[in-house]
Every structure is written in structure tokens, then in C-alpha cells.
Amino acid sequence: MWVDILARKTMRGRTTIVATQTDEGEAVGAFLLVVGRDAYATYNLPASGTLTIGRGETNAVRIDDPLASRAHACLHVGDEMYLEDLGSVNGTRIKEQLVAQGDRVPLSIGDTVQIGSTVLIVQRRTTTAEVMRPETLRDEGVPLPDGGFKGGEAMQRVHALAERAAAGTINVLITGETGVGKELLAEAVHRASPRREGPYVCLNCAALSETLLESELFGHERGAFTGAVQAKPGLLETAASGTLFLDEVGELPLATQAKLLRVIETRQVTRLGSVRPRHIDVRFIAATNRELEAEVTRGAFRQDLYFRLNGITLTIPPLRARVGEIRHLAETFVRQICRDLGRAPPIVPSSIITLLESYAWPGNIRELKNMVERAVLLCAGPIIGEEHLPLDKLIPTSASNGTPPPRVETQELAAPTERDRIMTALAACAGNQSRAAKLLGMPRRTFVSKLDTYQIPRPKKSL
Length: 463
Description:
By secondary structure, the protein is an alpha+beta fold. Helices cover 32% and strands 20% of the residues. The strands form six sheets. Strands 4-3-13-12-9-10 form a six-stranded antiparallel beta sheet, with no helix packed on it. The chain has a five-stranded mixed beta sheet with strand order 6-5-7-8-11, with no helix packed on it. β7 and β8 form a beta hairpin. It is globular, with a radius of gyration of 26 Å.
């Protein structure tokens, strides 16, 4: 159930509209930021469902834009998000690409949709109310970059520094490999800061062309370029009294870097097509998986902008340097995925954890979550096994020196795993062999035979 407007207030001469969903308890992992000529709105996205977008009063997301059709587009929300154009007169664009009528184009966090002079951006939300300090995130079960628990010494230092940085207004630069959780850490800094009540706006700098990127950042006046039929505030104005998160900041074009530097220095923004600067009060958090110092050396990134953004640097270590956190991460992801699927979580035996800990994880936490989700979906029984994992990727090889990996006999590889499963099943069934055999989906006689094969002491009969 949706309500049109929760609150309305005036901010620097424009009307700010905050819309929300009234169904309490519904899982909300993202919201839709709608930026128009004189207003912006935020719409919480449900865990699943379909939201219509357009000028009509009955739309879930209503856009007051003369170039928007009454029923313009449709947002499909589920495990993946898709946007569908409903045969609009003036079209819908995603990353400057026109969406064909009837096509469902996938959307990700930070993607920008343009309908007339109105821009819609999918943003991540981890909670809708409270201050999101790292401890709060752990209590709510939201996976932090360290897996939502205390973590090792390196991650403890990162979170301690992030909490100190959050208390001030200094710009923050978050570095680390792809998939380590830079966006989650950025949002945690915002939610722990005095600006927590202000907007948190995320922009993926790599997702937009240079022209559209400048229009989204700085805004534009009517007639500034072809198609600019109305004036529109940029994200820098939209993030007033809040935080602007520049994801993949290393992808910014040099021309845009120069303009952004000027904004940071003067705290003023000038819309495209205007000569009148507007004052802004925005905190900048930037993230990149590039070595910005190396980019500065080769002339791909401005040194002065690097110094401006680099007030405090938070470097998140890769997952391969935090092996001790893999078990907790994997088990947390299993519980979260199974909760969404409405099923009991399978057991992750120690042999599987050992395999996961032996892998280098070039995609870091994002890759681990994807692999765990794959294993959960493939696992129909109560225990995750090796057959549910991509063993060709996980089993260490000698490919780096050009020699083939040593041959491992199937029986040698499978025996410890099966023994571990049997021991786990017996423990889960309090030693009842019949129940343990049923749990593993094998005849009791076969189960008893395997106890002898693996020299597992026969438990006493359960009453």
C-alpha cells in the first residue's frame, strides 16, 4: 500500500516531497529517488512487486512532468529489477539509451532513468529509521564489509577510523578491490554522521556518459541543451544538508573533474545554461577500485581533486586477507538467502568452509555471496556438498607456473566429505541412526555400512 506524500517542506526555495510506503514490516532494501524541476521524492521499493510510473493519479510513482505519459513505464521489483516502457509518447531512457516499448531492461543500484526532464535513480537503503552505526548494522543482520561482526584486526581498524571520520564533515575516500563492500561502508559513515537526517544520494560515475553525468551532477536550466524543456536541479543540490556518494569516482572524465573540483572548493554549483551559482552544503564520500595516485601520475585523474577528496582514506582489505571471516560470512549469507526463499538453511560443513578458505576470491564478498546463493539453490537436502560448488574454481591448481594440478582420485576427495556429512547428520539427530540416514536420503543399511567404512563409532540406539 502506498501513500502519495508523507511530508512536504521548503528547502532553499523549492518544494521537497518525501513519499513512503505505509506497510510496516515489509522488507525494504532500496528506494527510488525521483528528481524533477521543482521537487524530489523518495519511494521505498517493496521486496517484490510491480510499480507503475507516470502522470496519472493512480500510479504508484507519480511524475508531474509534461513529457511523461499518464501510464509511462513500469518498474518490476524482485530478485532482479527491470524497467519496462508502457508505450510512452516521449520515450524512456536508461543511461541515455532509449528503451524499446515492451522491453524489460535490468536496473542496478545507482542506475539512472530519464523520463522527460525527470530523473529516477535506484538507491540502496539498509534501514528506514534509526542511526546506522556499525553496531546497529550488526544487530539488524546487514552484512558489513567484515561480514557483520567484529572481524579481524584490520577491519576493526577500518571501522574505528570510519566512526571517527563520520563525526566530522571531512571528505572521505574509500578504496578497495571490487566487491569488498565500499558502498555499504559509505552508507554506514553517512548514517553515523550528524547528517544522518539529510539525504544520502548515490551516483555511479561509470554508468553515465560525460554529458548526462554533468547534467545529473550540476543540473540544468531550460534550453541548456536539446531536450532540456524544463529546469532541473542536479544531485549536488538534491543532496543539500546530506551526503553525496560518488561511486567509481576514478571513472570521471577530466572535464567533469575540473568542474567538480570547483564545486568542492567554493561550495557553489552552477547549473548548465546558467550564470548564477547556488550555494550547497554537501559532504562528499567517494569510492574507487583504482589506484588514484597511479591515475594521477599518468594524467588520468587530477591531483588537486584527489587531494580534495582524500580527506581521510578508508582502505578495505580484500577477502583473501581476511580468511578468518569467511565462515561467518558464508553462514550469514546462507541464513539470509534461505529467509528470502522461505526455507530452512542447510548446514555448511567444515570441509566446505575449508574449500572456501583456500580460494583467492578475486571478486571478494560479492563473489562469495553469489557462490553461496548458487550452492543454496542447488542444494535440495539439508547439507551443502561439494557438488553444489564450482570445484574447478575452488580446488587449488598449479596453473600459475604452467604445470597441471596433481591428480586427485575421486574416492580420496569424496570420502572425507561424506564422513563429515555423516558426522554432522548424527549430531543433528542426537545419534539416531535411522533419522540421520533419512536426513541424508540414504537407506539405513547403507548408512550403517558407511559408519563401518569410515570407522565411525556406532551410537547407542535412541529411544
